[in-house]
Amino acid sequence: MKIKDNRLSRRTFIKGTAATLALSSIPLFPYERLFASGFPDHTIDIVVPTGAGGAADRNLQAFTGVWKKYLNTEFTSSFFSGAGGQVGYETYLGKKEPDCYNLLFGNMGPETIMYVMQKPPYKFPGDYVYFNQVDIDPSVIWVRADSPFKTIEDFVAEAKKRTVTLSVSRLPHPASIGTLALAEATGAKVNLIPYGGGNPTVVACLTGEVDASAMPMANPVSTKGQARILGVFAQNNPIPDQTNNAPSVNAVFGTKIPDLPSSRAFGIHAKAIEKYPDRYEILKSSMRKVFDDPDYKAAIEKTGRPWEFISYADEAACMEYAKNMAELTQKYLPLLSAKKKK
User: Fold this and answer.
1) Using an 8 Å Cβ cutoff, are 173 and 264 in contact?
2) Together in a domain, 156 and 97
3) Do 183 and 265 meet the contact criterion of CB atoms below 8 Å apart?
4) Do strands 75-79 and 44-48 pair parallel, antiparallel, or not at all (unpaired)?
5) What is the DSSP letter of 9?
6) Rounded distance between C-alpha atoms, residue 176 and residue 144, angstroms
7) Closest by Cα among 5, 124, 119, 121 to 106
8) Is residue 254 part of a domain?
9) Of 205, 215, 272, 327, which has fewest CB within 10 angstroms of its CB?
10) What is the CATH number of the domain that holds 131?
11) What is the pLDDT of residues 204-236, one digit of tens each?
């Protein structure tokens, strides 16, 4: 996916400044609303369609901890882990006011897959918009460090003899698509077991409750040497030095599985953008500043997440990513519709 970076060039900034000075001699409306509206004048609430304490929670805290420097307000978070994220989306869209004081912090890949598979009673695109991507994290198959599977070839060879179990945070997930597509291509037998969040999914693999796990790369990397990544569902491994140079699955097996990253982003009611465009602009402009702040890099590194995964994208790029993921879901829907591949 092409990531768009809308940073202002020096020339564009100068032109914009000149235009602003020219406007100072005429009545400010509607521009006065942007600066005199007092937005925000109370706490912003963020709905997260997964469980508390996991990667989404840590990433959100890292972001909002720095965002406070550029948007003078407080943030509260509420977590809803049911039905692969559907409960969170229905809560956000059905119970939260579309006033720009209520935001969504979603994982665009899994939750777009969920939308296509489960057909919930809201519309996408239509009812909400993703507008500020914070990361791109490739999906992987990984095992605990002392696993008998030393390579992805070992994993597939064993899975041809018996059904191999893998923990996943939720069945509708890019990592699930990758694993099932690999199984279909190689004749491997896999059973994906959803654990309802990042932490329990990691623990299930590390304790030996399952043979392996399929998740975004940052999860096993954060275990500090307790995990071994076997294969990456991407053309390139973004952090080979931290993953024992784990290979691309396609490079090993000659498959043509598409890149399957996980990508978190902020979302907002489409009606909020329509009703309060000035507030929306304040949200976007203040958010964009976070990515260039060294305090954000420090906050991310404290979570154990690689800084290499942090990647800003605007509304257009976010919506393009979600559209592509919806198309992939349709393609692999027969595989995702069954929990067990025999």
Assistant:
1) no
2) no
3) no
4) parallel
5) P
6) 18
7) 124
8) yes
9) 327
10) 3.40.190.150
11) 999 999 999 999 999 999 898 999 999 999 999
